[in-house]
Amino acid sequence: MAPKLPPTHPLEHSVTTVAGSQAPAHHAPPRGILRWLLTTNHKEIGSLYLIFSLIMFFIGGIFALVIRAELFQPGLQLVNPEFFNQMTTMHGLIMVFAAVMPAFTGLANWMIPLQIGAPDMALPRLNNFSFWLLPVAFTLLLSTLFMPGGGPNFGWTFYAPLSTTYAPPSTTFFILALHIAGISSILGAINIIATILNMRAPGMRMMDMPLFVWTWLITAFLLIAVMPVLAGVITMMLMDINFGTSFFSAAGGGDPVLFQHLFWFFGHPEVYIMILPAFGIVSVIIPTFARKPLFGYPSMVYATASIALLSFMVWAHHMFVVGLPLAAELFFMYSTMLIAVPTGVKIFNWITTLFRGSISFESPMLFSLAFVVLFTIGGFSGLMLAISPADFQYHDTYFVVAHFHYVLVPGAVFAIMAAAYYWLPKWTGHYPNERLAQWHFWLSVIGVNLTFFPMHFAGLAGMPRRIPDYALQFADFNMLSSIGAFLFGFSQLLFVLVVVLCVRGGKKAPAQAWEGAWDLEWTVPSPAPLHTFETPPDFKRPTL
Amino acid sequence: MNNEQQQISEQRVGIRRTVGRSIAALVGMFAFAFALVPLYDVFCRITGLNGKVDTTAQAFVHENVDESRYVTVQFITRGSAGLPWKMDVETQQVRVHPGQPTEVDFTFSNQSDQSNWGRAVPSVSPSEASPHLRKMSCFCFAEQKLQAGEKLTIPLVFQLTHELPAEISTITLVYTLYPVKNKVSQLSSQQTQHAGGTI
């Protein structure tokens, strides 16, 4: 950290007692595996996060394909119901905590210092620690699949008493894994907040920051607010299972519904943690390829902040059927619908940014445009679910599955893909192969819609979620979904191919790789050297 | 150079302050999560929202029986996977006036060949009615022990208050039997075998 510091700086010396971890390490990094184990460089750690999340994306994807293969036809063909339950649970857990969240943290590590003109993250060693907690956490979580009694089988929402009284013995490992992953997210969030608030280039005000930085700042606050609640909930589960307490057991005076309240008090902000950085990415990419500044920058910031605040007041819309009193049903219905207002502001701002722009359709832009359209579909089905009386029919059906996959796959995942294509020239110095990237895009768009669109109809017709077998009338929808899922899954291999080819070579990218890109990261050479902005850049506010 | 040094030290102080505040917020939120448990209980007791009723006996309130109004009180009894008991009620529903004390007999029978401990946990729906249901005597106030094959009849004595909201005409009282942990060790092993089959 802070390599430009004069050697006599008192504060610096008071905290550095670890031998050899100071300045010399920057000039002669250890080689081989140690280089990656010990790195404190935000770009290397960012890459580690991204690679880890890509691997986990494929593992979670394989679990999804096991589910879709079983559901290809009615009846039980491939796996037994117990294993099927473990697959639905693990698919959810891995995708949420090991794929989407680390991918955004990786992008934050790489791009936030570059976008605000900082030499590195505020706490580089902590940064290394928070990454290396992740492989530990998820090795532990995946290992539960091989334990007697199997892995977690209670759904990613791990409702008590399924996850306490009736849980497999491996649940304690699941709790530990989630604790470790939670600590990792918290440390990452502290680091991001400390970096953004204290290390901006001289002259860069908060309202000058690129929107990716803004959305991540707000996301980090959400993480700090709700990850401790998750930690509290799983600690209570741990005590219920192992120490005879009765937080969630009605037999001992507890209440299983309390679990759902606590879980969703964490869980609803969590879903915004998975989408706000995606909003930021799209808000950075669309102006670049429309060659116009973002329309309504301040309203974008305020909309993001309002979504974050509202996310704390809507949790019980996941629980409309537990027997809430009428007043609560109405309150949570209206507060949920209120979220459509700031979200609508964002969508209209993106559309207005496109209006009369000179748009070109490179792969990052294609993914961003697909994000806007398909995320909006997910938002609308969310509005349908928010209608409390209608939710009594939709609850726990495939309609819900369709809804949250529309906001997470063509939402969060497409935004991550867009970000990867957008910043790959900065990371590797080469443009990604555009022809392959476009193939990847079109196959993904077709695959995603083929997978998840029929689920709306299956759900409206009454197909429950998390079942390995289903009534015959759902067979056609499920066959379509399964074909789409395999198409989508295998076309992600194209993405790996594009990334590998791009790392190894390709068309050379200049510092400003995209014509309309004006943020600070495009002022450093491509590929970005290991150390950038060691002297803070002069930030010039764009004169528009 | 001096200026730059000063800037960097200001930055360090700023980072420390940010980290300190973040950690304070973290600790606060962790504590808040645990504080939500008693808060939830208090909130539910005041509002009666989760259908829980007082688990201690309440005194009988002598008030006029409101004969202009009938309320149907239904009883549902449920067994539990971990406890081989049967629970019956003498009548599925009674029609009572608010203020009128009523006695209903419940019968517990242990169908296994060993003695064990159990407890009946009540739940009231609609939950708005739960603050208005006063129990003078109930088997649900205490854990019970039944010998192998034993059969026991215990009464429930309750009274509805006059303040029961006018729109409530039916109250359902559900009793679920639970094994009492630690007092029945052999039962917990039976329970885990049920894992996964509950979806």
From TrEMBL, chain A:
> Which reaction is recorded as catalysed by this protein?
4 Fe(II)-[cytochrome c] + O2 + 8 H(+)(in) = 4 Fe(III)-[cytochrome c] + 2 H2O + 4 H(+)(out)
Extract one GO cellular component term from the record: respiratory chain complex IV
Q: Where in the cell is it found?
A: Cell membrane; Membrane
Spell out the CDD domains in the cross-references.
Cyt_c_Oxidase_I
Name of the protein this chain belongs to: Cytochrome c oxidase subunit 1
Tell me which UniProt keywords the record has, alphabetically. Cell membrane, Copper, Electron transport, Heme, Iron, Membrane, Metal-binding, Oxidoreductase, Respiratory chain, Translocase, Transmembrane, Transmembrane helix, Transport
GO terms (molecular function) for this protein are: cytochrome-c oxidase activity; heme binding; metal ion binding; oxidoreductase activity
Family membership: Belongs to the heme-copper respiratory oxidase family.
**Where in this chain does the record put each Cytochrome oxidase subunit I profile domain?**
36-540
The pathway it acts in is: Energy metabolism; oxidative phosphorylation
Which Gene3D superfamilies does this entry report, sorted A to Z? Cytochrome c oxidase-like, subunit I domain
* A UniProt-annotated Pfam family: COX1
Membrane association type: Multi-pass membrane protein
Q: Which NCBIfam families match?
A: CtaD_CoxA (TIGR02891)
Asked if the Swiss-Prot or TrEMBL record annotates the protein with the keyword Protease, the reply is: no
Automatic annotation (TrEMBL), chain B:
**UniProt keyword RNA-binding present:** no
Any one of the GO CC terms: plasma membrane
What highest taxon heads this organism's lineage? Bacteria
Q: Where are the transmembrane segments?
A: 21-40
Q: How does it sit in the membrane?
A: Single-pass type II membrane protein
The Swiss-Prot or TrEMBL record describes its family as follows: Belongs to the COX11/CtaG family.
This protein's species is Vreelandella rituensis
Q: What is the name attached to this protein's record?
A: Cytochrome c oxidase assembly protein CtaG
The record's keywords, sorted A to Z, are: Copper, Membrane, Signal-anchor, Transmembrane, Transmembrane helix
Q: Which residues form a coiled coil?
A: none
